[in-house]
Amino acid sequence: MSALYETKAKDGLTHLKLETAAQRLDGTAQRAAAEQWSYTHFLG
Question: What is the domain partition of the chain in residue ranges?
């Protein structure tokens, strides 16, 4: 995930008060890329 989009995603999750999701975003994005998850799988 690019740094710009990672920042936007974390900010959005924080705004929605989804702190745990914001904290886990980087690791989950790395796993999604490594395992070639679909976009909808990643969002789920």
Answer: 3-43
H or E element at residue 16: none
Note whether 32 and 41 are within 8 A (CB). Answer: yes
| Angle 6-19-10 from CA coordinates, rounded to 5° | 15
pLDDT 10s digits, 1-44: 578 898 999 999 999 999 999 999 999 999 999 999 999 999 88
Sign of CA dihedral 44, 28, 6, 13: positive
One-letter amino acid for residue 31 of the chain: R
Q: Both ends of the chain: CA-CA distance in Å? A: 17
Q: What is the DSSP letter of 35?
A: H
